[in-house]
Q: What sequence folds into this?
């Protein structure tokens, strides 16, 4: 039949398999962005202009750096893989709204250039680029994070105001908690009373800390889409809760505060910088939890999430080596 | 209630609806047949006829003395019009005998197979090979090496490849032939147990086999539908609960696996003296009349597609076999052979991308999780890409069964299996044992 004959000229030869799953790199990255959207939007609504400005600055820095780098190196343009977008958004969510504009730009450039491109681009980086950017800020301008919620946003919402909050004004809850613990081993305010604001509306700290509940919603989306492995957040959060209890603090408060949820669901689960086997991922999650707890209770940085994950990023290749799967059939001879 | 499957694997869209309910239909004798002298794994045959010879249906037209091989029979009565090279579905060139069929054909009659030496000899003489696609000569498998005790004959009715339904239809329409063949083979190798493994997306086939096999004590096990459930090692694992040890024959587990269509062909050979001259082929995808056609071996794919109403819409790849392990055809002037289970016409949007634009591995973990051989495909592929063959070998590429699962799941569409094949071939050149 003529139909067949005309088509014949156009058929394509290739090696098997001839079909492929619908999953694509860009698709996965866009789902991560979608999962972050509820939190992002809520942050913009409640924090207003500073939050929007920060997000734009971070995205301009990450996307721009990658585009320029590729152009300068005459490489294939990689913006469409979506990873720079995710890095930019995650970086913005991990910074406080009042971060000066030039620090936000610098963090975005560092995140992409030092966090990813110098290693050879996506897939070859050892550390999570967004966390590299944030760590850079934490080391160079620690004051950015110590900045108090000085606009009284919180007190403008009386029904959410925690009892005793006035006493800790001028520092984030975590810092206040750490200071109290260091001073006399007791807390000057009720940790349990912080659950509600931390879950629903928290205007101190980073953009991503605005609502743990919305972050959990995003995490649930990624779990449901099987984009992330539950073992990492479960290991991370479980360990953090357990160790908080062991160290005599309030487990739930420590899980909800300090960007831990953002870190556990969105940062530690970054494919490139986390292990690839199931058991390896569980161990990695637990490791994140351990270092985060130790850092928070005994270190100088009350949140400790960034450095806990970066440290475990560095161990990921070792974990992969330790948990190499046993090839099918490589069993003891059965007779 | 289905039995748990092997670890790993994928669940691609089945796409079987178009043909799973379509009864097997005989395709009329085409105007020309090009019968390749190699339709199996092993030594090719030499033509035993000459141009101008008259042949009858079932007559041997190609043979060899080699142990691992299978003779070729003329599917029709007619005249040998040419002997020469033909392109195969696999893209290679082999010698083929072209036969122009007589005007009138009686497909019910054929030259009967005669052979001394029991069932394996008859199966050999009838040219029966693994019809699931592997095309390993069945007679060889029916003579297990000395000292290997076969306890279980496993009938492979998984048909785990998307699109294909030829085995499904065979199980539904002629379960007795399959059971008869299974009984013959079990008796031959001394297996006490016959187990049929069928994926649970084929309830009718399971019911039909159960019914037909009841008196013979055949166990029919519904298996979780997951590709590659029908791969020999994965099927043995599901049924026997043991792994085929690296470097050993599957028979080391006491299991002998045969495809259901092979079993039916064995029954035909032993009970009726019928040589293998046709098979059921699922023609599906973008064709006007998708269906399961009984096709004479040597029928050209172009004629088969025409019989199925021609292609519909834009065509991307045309696959001989299933889309996971089959071969993309470069030309449609290639003959259907003993291992051609399907012709799948994929649209450009359905087929995998033609060109891999060198996207990196993002270490998502999908390929190691899905590999049914528990390999780390990304690692083998990365080393193969850099031609670090020694490093690649540490990750056991020779254990790869080439199921394609790794390439299928990869979100950056890396050509994993292609790279792994290179690593595998290099390792085998250096003498690694499969
Ligand atoms: S490495 Fe081989 S066995 Fe494993 S998924 Fe890929 S093709 Fe299949
Ligand atoms: S599926 Fe692809 S991206 Fe994911 S680990 Fe394997 S090779 Fe890398």
A:
């Amino acid at each position: 039949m003529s139909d067949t004959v005309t088509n014949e000229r156009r058929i394509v030869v290739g090696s098997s398999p001839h079909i492929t799953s619908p999953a694509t790199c860009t698709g996965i990255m866009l789902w991560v962005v979608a999962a972050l959207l509820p939190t992002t939007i809520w942050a913009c609504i409640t924090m207003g202009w500073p939050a929007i400005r920060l997000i734009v600055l971070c995205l301009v820095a990450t996307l721009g750096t990658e585009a320029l780098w590729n152009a300068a190196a005459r490489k294939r343009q990689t913006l469409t893989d979506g990873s720079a977008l995710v890095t930019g958004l995650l970086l913005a969510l991990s910074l406080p709204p009042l971060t000066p504009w030039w620090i936000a730009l610098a963090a975005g450039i560092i995140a992409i250039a030092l966090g990813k491109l110098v290693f050879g681009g996506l897939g070859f980086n050892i550390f999570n680029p967004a966390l590299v950017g944030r760590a850079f800020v934490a080391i160079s301008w620690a004051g950015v994070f110590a900045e108090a919620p000085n606009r009284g946003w919180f007190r403008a919402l009386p029904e959410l105001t925690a009892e005793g909050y006035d006493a800790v004004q001028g520092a984030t809850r975590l810092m206040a908690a750490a200071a109290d613990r260091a001073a006399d081993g007791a807390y000057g305010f009720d940790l349990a009373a912080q659950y509600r604001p931390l879950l629903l509306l928290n205007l101190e700290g980073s953009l991503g800390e605005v609502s743990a509940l919305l972050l959990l919603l995003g995490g649930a989306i990624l779990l449901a889409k099987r984009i992330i492995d539950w073992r990492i957040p479960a290991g991370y959060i479980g360990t953090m809760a357990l160790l908080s209890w062991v160290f005599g603090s309030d487990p739930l408060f420590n899980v909800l505060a300090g960007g831990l949820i953002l870190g556990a669901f969105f940062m530690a689960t970054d494919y490139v910088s986390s292990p690839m086997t199931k058991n390896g991922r569980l161990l990695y999650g637990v490791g994140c939890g351990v270092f985060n707890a130790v850092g928070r209770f005994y270190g100088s940085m009350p949140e400790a999430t960034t450095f806990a994950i970066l440290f475990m990023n560095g161990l990921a290749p070792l974990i992969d080596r330790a948990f190499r799967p046993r090839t099918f059939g490589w069993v003891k001879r059965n007779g | 209630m289905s039995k748990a499957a092997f670890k790993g694997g994928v669940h691609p869209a089945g796409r079987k609806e178009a043909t799973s309910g379509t009864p097997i239909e005989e395709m009329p004798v085409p105007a020309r047949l090009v019968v390749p002298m190699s339709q199996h794994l092993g030594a090719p045959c030499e033509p035993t006829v000459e141009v101008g010879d008259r042949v009858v249906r079932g007559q041997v037209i190609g043979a060899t003395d080699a142990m691992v091989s299978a003779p070729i029979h003329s599917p029709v009565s007619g005249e040998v019009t040419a002997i020469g090279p033909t392109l195969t579905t696999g893209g290679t060139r082999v010698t083929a005998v072209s036969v122009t069929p007589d005007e009138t054909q009686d497909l019910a009659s054929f030259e009967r197979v005669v052979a001394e030496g029991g069932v394996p000899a008859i199966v050999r003489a009838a040219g029966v090979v693994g019809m699931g696609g592997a095309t390993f000569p069945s007679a060889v498998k029916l003579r297990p090496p000395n000292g290997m005790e076969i306890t279980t004959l496993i009938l492979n009715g998984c048909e785990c490849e998307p699109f294909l339904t030829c085995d499904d239809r065979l199980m539904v329409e002629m379960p007795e032939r399959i059971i008869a063949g299974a009984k013959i083979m079990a008796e031959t190798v001394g297996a006490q147990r016959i187990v049929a493994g069928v994926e649970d997306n084929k309830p009718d086939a399971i019911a039909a086999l159960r019914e037909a096999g009841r008196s013979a004590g055949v166990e029919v096990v519904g298996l979780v539908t997951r590709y590659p459930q029908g791969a020999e090692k994965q099927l043995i694992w599901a049924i026997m609960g043991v792994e085929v040890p690296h470097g050993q024959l599957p028979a080391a587990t006491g299991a002998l696996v045969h495809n259901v269509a092979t079993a039916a062909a064995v029954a035909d050979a032993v009970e009726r003296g019928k040589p293998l001259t046709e098979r059921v082929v699922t023609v599906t995808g973008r064709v006007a009349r998708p269906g399961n056609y009984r096709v004479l071996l040597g029928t050209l794919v172009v004629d088969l597609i025409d019989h199925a109403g021609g292609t519909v819409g834009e065509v991307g790849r045309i696959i001989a076999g299933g889309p996971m392990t089959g071969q993309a055809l470069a030309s449609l002037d290639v003959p259907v052979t003993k291992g051609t289970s399907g012709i799948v016409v994929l649209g450009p949007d359905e087929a995998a991308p033609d060109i891999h634009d060198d996207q990196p591995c993002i270490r998502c973990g999908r390929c190691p999780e899905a590999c049914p051989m528990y390999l780390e495909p990304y690692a083998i592929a990365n080393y193969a890409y850099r031609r670090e063959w020694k490093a690649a070998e540490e990750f056991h590429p020779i254990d790869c069964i080439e199921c394609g699962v790794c390439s299928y799941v990869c979100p950056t569409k890396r050509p994993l299996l292609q790279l792994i094949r290179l690593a595998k071939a290099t390792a085998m050149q250096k003498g690694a044992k499969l």
